[in-house]
Design a protein that fits this description.
This protein is α/β, with parallel strands linked by helices. The protein has 13 helices and 16 strands. The strands form 4 sheets. Strands 3, 4, 5, 6, 7, 10, 11 and 12 form an 8-stranded mixed sheet that branches. Strands 13-14-15-16 form a 4-stranded antiparallel sheet. It is globular, with a radius of gyration of 22 Å.
Length: about 500
């Protein structure tokens, strides 16, 4: 791996003496609610642009978020700190309310001479301009705050017919469906406008010193409202069928009410098979819409002569359920929620098109990008650099990846405004082990063990009471309790 090292004086590249070439730029691309449902991961999703990016770089097939909900996951990745270190487990709290002076990934680059810009949702959308993170950016963010339900098609003249037929409520969260298939341009929705803005910025960024450009796409988060041409890419009947079975022996606490899609528990109605099929179709359509916008940004990077000296990293903030396990959306510790896409294309990659099975976490992104550039290491980061894996795709940097999630799923909505139980989960090479601990006492209230060894269909049976490999269970328990120590009596 060719890693240019730069002498940074006073944190400004004006005083840099490079050893070989100009410092590389960074293009960080984010997707919202995207599980690894991409062609390069073996999915039937049509994602030619992200597949092309994967062919240039390294695809991490076992990458995991630290909590499967937007704000904690994004805040964790962008600070390099775990949710427990931040004390942040909910969407409604800005990370700076808890850690006012914490350094973020873009802020670290800004402090070391980079121009930093953000188009779209990168940090969580707290729905107000004031709650972005202006400290991290060289200029105001674009379309970084909004409500997903307000992503209505904006066009001149009347809307055409909505070709989604089985929705009950297009704009109201908790209304089964939330599907739209209008024949409108890409720019009618947020992500088309985000891509267009990023493309518009690149010629100007090219004129200055090195830049860190974050492009945060809002899809495939609900509502499922990609323009019709992306729905038309798929034969709904040919998409993989859903397996709604709850894992045998799994504790009830591992579940959640899927409120984001199905509504409050006391008002829920079971989706019809037609609605299930339409929502799954809409999710795939949204992925292809997202991919097309990524393609526009990558094409502009190349057209501006920036591709050869820009590190490109694509990631998803957490996974997603589409009816599997009877669940919708996120907020669990299951594999489908914890596992995320991660593709990293460095400058002059040694192994283009490589796929790595190394266990990696989103807290690893911050130290990896710093390492690739040759910046000083930010203090207190809790992840590990993935550069050894870029140099050798068979390498590993850690024995396990960790995810956690509280119960209730959104504790800030509960009377106590804090968790009652926390689920701590560890993913090793062959197993997922989870402990649900009482928040106040630390007592273990339930446990789960799922077999992820090759050839075993994962997470359909909790085998913790009859572990096929007792030594592997003990090792997973040791790793989990090393990361999340038990409370002392």
């Amino acid at each position: 791996m060719k890693r240019p090292l730069f002498l940074l004086l006073s944190g400004l590249f004006a005083a840099v003496a490079p050893t070989s070439a100009a410092p590389p730029n960074v293009l960080l691309i984010t997707a919202d609610d995207l599980r690894p449902e991409l062609g390069c991961y073996g999915s039937p999703a049509l994602t030619p642009h992200l597949d092309a990016l994967a062919a240039r770089g390294t695809t991490f097939t076992r990458a995991y978020c630290q909590q499967a909900v937007c704000n904690p996951s994004r805040s964790s990745m962008l600070t390099g700190l775990r949710p427990g270190t931040l004390g942040l487990y909910v969407n409604g709290t800005h990370f700076r309310e808890l850690r006012p002076d914490v350094t973020t990934l873009p802020l670290w680059f800004k402090d070391h001479g980079y121009t930093t810009r953000c188009a779209g949702k990168l940090f969580h959308n707290w729905h107000t301009k004031e709650k972005g993170d202006p400290r991290s950016w060289s200029a105001p963010e674009f379309l970084h705050y909004a409500n997903h339900g307000d992503d209505v098609p904006m066009i001149d003249g009347p809307l055409p017919e909505n070709h989604a037929k089985h929705s009950e409520g297009l704009r109201k969260y908790g209304s089964v469906g939330m599907c739209e298939a209008y024949d409108v341009p890409d720019e009618a929705y947020y992500d088309g406008r985000v891509a267009a803005e990023a493309v518009r910025w690149l010629p100007e960024l090219k004129k200055g010193g090195p830049f860190f450009l974050a492009v945060g796409f809002w899809k495939p988060h609900a509502p499922f409202n990609a323009p019709k041409k992306y729905w038309d890419l798929y034969d709904r009947a040919a998409l993989p069928p859903v397996d709604p079975r709850w894992p045998a022996g799994a504790p009830d606490i591992a579940s959640h009410p899927s409120t984001e899609i199905l509504g409050p528990p006391d008002k829920q109605t079971k989706p019809t098979p037609e609605q299930v099929a339409e929502m799954r179709h809409g999710y795939f359509a949204a992925i292809s819409y997202l991919d097309a916008q990524v393609g526009k940004v990558l094409a502009a990077l190349k057209e501006n002569g920036l591709e050869e000296n820009t590190i490109v990293l694509f990631w998803g903030d957490h996974g997603y359920h589409l009816g599997e396990h009877g669940l919708w959306a996120k907020t669990s510790n299951f594999e489908l929620d914890a596992r995320v896409p991660l593709i990293l294309a460095p400058v002059a990659p040694e192994h283009p098109g490589a796929k790595s099975e190394a266990l990696v976490e989103m807290v690893d992104v911050f130290p990896t990008l710093v390492d690739l550039i040759g910046l000083p290491t930010a203090p207190g980061l809790e992840g590990a650099s993935l550069v050894p894996v870029l140099e050798d795709p068979t390498a590993t940097v850690k024995p396990a990846a960790f995810t956690q999630h509280p119960r209730p799923p959104y504790p800030d909505r509960s009377p106590k405004k804090e968790p009652e139980v926390m689920g701590y989960s560890v993913r090793t090479s062959g197993w997922r082990y989870t402990e649900w601990r009482n928040w106040e006492t630390g007592a273990v209230e339930a446990t789960e063990l799922y077999d992820h060894r090759e050839g075993v269909r994962p997470e359909l049976e909790n085998v913790v009471e009859s572990a096929p490999d007792p030594e592997a269970l003990e090792e997973a328990r040791r790793l989990l309790r090393g990361q999340f120590p038990m409370k002392k009596p």
